[in-house]
């Protein structure tokens, strides 16, 4: 959660930083701010006396002029007035999702020191901020945030080292972040230097390499219209970006005898494969609807080059040792939210195809234990961003226990890829909408490919059955497109039911995770009470809640025990509930009030049903006038525990 953008180069920084904030707003939108190094004062030389000029409804006692211009406002990025500073070619920005302190102007980032010569933005949580604040003594604090200790610590560090040979911002940042406990991505500027210094530990940061310019952000979408050449920083890294585009990275030293805590390192430069316009709305009113409609393309990208139907083979560029595959006794899947439901879908497939016990655990609750043998366990982290704090914590616990680890993620260079033995990318392209859509389908598809590969390698899946599943996978993009082509019917249903009291989603077998995911989508963006249930559990309590104002949405497809599920749907109908069903093309359930047809793709049919549920949630939310891309209390990437 929260977004960071930084720019230093030879162009006006303000519009570049502001555009980056707009690109990142999906990561947090309760306040935003910009800090710029005023061009007239930025010499890159001596240490400063400070001073800043601040715009917006913030602390009224901020100095009227000086070396920094700071603008910050509560609310969405559009509330922020872009500073008129054409000579400022270095700046940082932040869009916030509250952790410490309510969303007010004063709590918005950037935060400055007492001399107002240092500005800092920060993602994550500084767990020992109260202790550090107490140590700072007479420093004046103007916010309720944990972040504000950082500029004051930097101020103290620079003051105390003023007599050293080369006291500078980078050395100060190194010394300060080594005192921080928790997770952070910290980005700092000083009034006298066209330069950005940043550090990460537990929160993502990526460098963008431009021509005579450098960018820094929590996500490549912040600067993708300027460059696709990037460097992903690693935990412990400190990076120094200068005005000529030079980028220096410093990593913790392994030699305790070295005088400085970090040494220069080379980090690879990689090319982001998708174009900048992939992260734009392309004429859609909301990112979410655009990304729902991108699912056929995303699925084709997921499958591309990986499926050989004739040979009944899958190539995921993962080399699990043959001896390990022979002895593995359990596959563990750890994930959160939508990724957790993708894992539940996949677990059924892995057990069926690979004949190995598969468990799925919410990452925040995961512990490796209960007599498991790590040498016979494969732990899979499923995370769209690759930065989900709970999932990273879980996979690190599995690794510490000695289990083999694998990540299924959408993000090249993300933290999870460095925490595991192997990684598989879902190739869904950028997903900006807070409510996950295309990544769910691509996660399940990638995990289905893994299930086939494991089954073939272990000799538990016949070539004939593997070909059948792979044919269904190849047919999935077209089946999803058929569901999208029926959107007008979903709009009609959404208009009919948008004002109901509550919604129940039912499924069996592979339909259960889809029912849970369907309910989650409606909660996230429509703010309606929605619950997903295994259909057989309806009569074990939840049926008491069913009324004629409680529509039931059901997965009635192959892979979802449709006949048995329909029995439970009928139980709800006899209590007055209307029933909406996603039905396999060759089946008829005449008692349904609304039916959506699902093409024949075998065990993947519940995935197509999920597309109908996504569209239903979207159009119900749209009828209610909800902020679909910015749902209340939520942000895209949960990078704190």
Automatic annotation (TrEMBL):
This is Glutamine--fructose-6-phosphate aminotransferase [isomerizing]. GO terms for molecular function: carbohydrate derivative binding; glutamine-fructose-6-phosphate transaminase (isomerizing) activity. The gene is glmS. Homodimer. Residues 2-244 form the Glutamine amidotransferase type-2 domain. CDD domains: GFAT (cd00714), SIS_GlmS_GlmD_1 (cd05008), SIS_GlmS_GlmD_2 (cd05009). The lineage of its organism: Archaea, Methanobacteriati, Methanobacteriota, Stenosarchaea group, Halobacteria. Its EC number is 2.6.1.16. It is found in: Cytoplasm. It catalyses: D-fructose 6-phosphate + L-glutamine = D-glucosamine 6-phosphate + L-glutamate. Catalyzes the first step in hexosamine metabolism, converting fructose-6P into glucosamine-6P using glutamine as a nitrogen source. It holds the Pfam family GATase_6. It comes from Halopenitus persicus. InterPro entries: GATase_2_dom, GFAT, GFAT_N, GlmS/AgaS_SIS, GlmS/FrlB_SIS, Ntn_hydrolases_N, SIS_dom, SIS_dom_sf. The active site is at 2 (nucleophile), 636 (for fru-6p isomerization activity).
């Amino acid at each position: 959660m929260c977004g960071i953008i930084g720019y230093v180069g030879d162009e006006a920084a303000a519009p570049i930083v502001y555009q980056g904030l707009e690109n990142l707003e999906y990561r947090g939108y309760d306040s935003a701010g910009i800090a710029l190094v005023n061009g007239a004062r930025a010499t890159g030389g001596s240490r400063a006396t400070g001073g800043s000029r601040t715009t917006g409804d913030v602390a009224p006692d901020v100095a009227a002029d000086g070396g920094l211009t700071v603008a910050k406002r509560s609310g969405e990025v559009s509330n922020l007035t872009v500073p008129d500073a054409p000579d400022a070619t270095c700046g940082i920005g932040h869009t916030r999702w509250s952790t410490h302190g309510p969303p007010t102007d004063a709590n918005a980032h950037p935060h400055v020191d007492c001399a107002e010569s240092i500005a800092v933005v920060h993602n994550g949580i500084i767990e020992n901020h109260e202790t550090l604040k107490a140590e700072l003594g007479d420093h004046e604090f103007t916010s309720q945030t944990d972040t504000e200790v950082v500029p004051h610590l930097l101020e103290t560090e620079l003051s105390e080292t003023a007599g050293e040979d080369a006291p500078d911002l980078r050395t100060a940042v190194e010394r300060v972040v080594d005192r921080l406990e928790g997770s952070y991505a910290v980005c700092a500027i000083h009034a006298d230097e066209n330069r950005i210094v940043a550090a990460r530990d537990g929160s993502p940061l990526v460098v963008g390499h431009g021509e005579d310019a450098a960018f820094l952000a929590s996500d490549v979408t912040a600067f993708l219209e300027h460059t696709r050449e990037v460097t992903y920083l690693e935990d412990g890294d400190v990076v120094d970006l200068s005005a000529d585009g030079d980028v220096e990275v410093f990593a913790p030293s392994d030699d305790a005898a070295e005088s400085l805590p970090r040494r220069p390192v080379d980090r690879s430069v990689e090319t982001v494969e998708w174009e900048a316009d992939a992260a734009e709305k392309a004429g859609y009113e909301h990112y979410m609807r655009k990304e729902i409609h991108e699912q056929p393309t995303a699925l084709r990208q997921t499958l591309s080059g990986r499926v050989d139907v004739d040979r009944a083979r899958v190539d995921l560029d993962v080399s699990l040792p043959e001896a390990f595959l022979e002895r593995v006794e359990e596959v563990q899947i750890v994930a959160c939210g939508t990724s957790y439901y993708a894992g539940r879908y996949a677990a059924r497939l892995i057990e069926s195809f690979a004949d190995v016990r598969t468990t799925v655990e919410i990452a925040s609750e995961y512990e490796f234990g209960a007599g498991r043998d790590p040498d016979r366990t494969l732990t899979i982290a499923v995370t769209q961003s690759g930065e989900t704090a709970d999932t990273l914590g879980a996979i690190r616990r599995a690794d510490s226990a000695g289990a083999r680890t694998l990540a299924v993620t959408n993000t090249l260079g993300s933290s999870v890829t460095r925490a595991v033995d192997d990684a598989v990318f879902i190739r869904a392209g950028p997903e900006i909408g807070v409510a996950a859509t295309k990544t769910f389908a691509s996660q399940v598809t990638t995990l289905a490919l893994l299930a086939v590969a494991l089954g073939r390698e272990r000799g538990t899946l016949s070539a004939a059955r593997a070909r059948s599943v792979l044919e269904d996978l190849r047919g999935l993009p077209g089946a999803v497109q058929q569901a999208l082509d029926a959107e007008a019917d979903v709009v009609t249903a959404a208009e009919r039911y948008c004002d109901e009291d509550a919604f129940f989603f039912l499924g069996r077998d592979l339909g259960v995770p889809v029912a849970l995911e369907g309910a989650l989508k409606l909660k996230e963006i429509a703010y309606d009470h929605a619950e997903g249930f295994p259909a057989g559990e309806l009569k074990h309590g939840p049926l008491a809640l069913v009324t004629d104002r409680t529509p039931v949405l059901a997965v009635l497809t192959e892979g979802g025990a449709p006949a048995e599920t329909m029995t439970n749907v009928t139980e709800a109908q006899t209590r007055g509930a209307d029933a909406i069903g996603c039905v396999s093309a060759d089946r008829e359930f005449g008692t349904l009030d609304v039916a959506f047809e699902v093409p024949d793709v075998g065990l993947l049919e519940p995935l197509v049903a999920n597309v109908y549920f996504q569209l239903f949630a979207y159009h119900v939310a749209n009828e209610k006038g909800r902020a679909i891309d910015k749902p209340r209390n939520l942000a895209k990437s949960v990078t704190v525990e």
